[in-house]
Automatic annotation (TrEMBL):
The protein's name: Putative toxin-antitoxin system toxin component, PIN family
Upper taxonomic lineage: Bacteria, Pseudomonadati, Bacteroidota, Sphingobacteriia, Sphingobacteriales
Protein source organism: Mucilaginibacter pedocola
PIN domain span: 7-118
Region forming the signal peptide: none
Alphabetized SUPFAM superfamilies for the sequence: PIN domain-like
Pfam families: PIN_3
Length: 141
């Protein structure tokens, strides 16, 4: 068994949403996930939100297919979260991504959501935030 030294990231729901369609200019991200180019950390709560939002945006079949893929891919880490850091006060729902990143010791949270900017100013725990363009560069695209 070889050691895996890939980036571990938490994807905000909107980042995943814009990457799923093969017609999206951000589809490279979903393809990179499927091609095992990085690891993604998700909690059961994040997976439920992904399913809900994908179902709203497309339909239940697409949501189930993406959800099934996420539970079967070897580069998807299912993380149980035991701490609620509550670092984001503007949108409490966003804290699930921060808590998952902390529990997974993730390298980054990938998001375009400005609510996460407050996390950049927190000294502990240090959870780096990057946008989709920075992530593309980090992957070498």
């Amino acid at each position: 068994m070889q050691k895996v030294n890939k980036l571990i990231v938490v994807l905000d729901t909107n980042i995943l949403l814009v990457s799923i369609s093969s017609r999206s200019k951000y589809h490279w991200l979903y393809q990179a996930l499927l091609n095992n180019e990085f690891q993604i950390a998700i909690s059961p709560e994040i997976l439920l939100e992904y399913e809900e939002k994908i179902s709203e945006h497309w339909n239940n079949d697409v949501a189930l297919n993406v959800s099934r893929s996420l539970t079967e891919l070897h580069n998807v880490l299912l993380i149980n979260v035991y701490y609620n850091l509550n670092l984001i006060t503007a949108d409490l729902d966003d804290n699930k991504f921060v808590d998952c990143a902390f529990a997974a010791n993730a390298d980054y949270i990938v998001t375009q959501d400005h609510h996460f900017n407050v996390v950049k100013n927190v000294e502990f725990p240090r959870i780096p935030i990057m946008d989709i363009h920075q992530f593309k560069q980090a992957l070498g695209y």
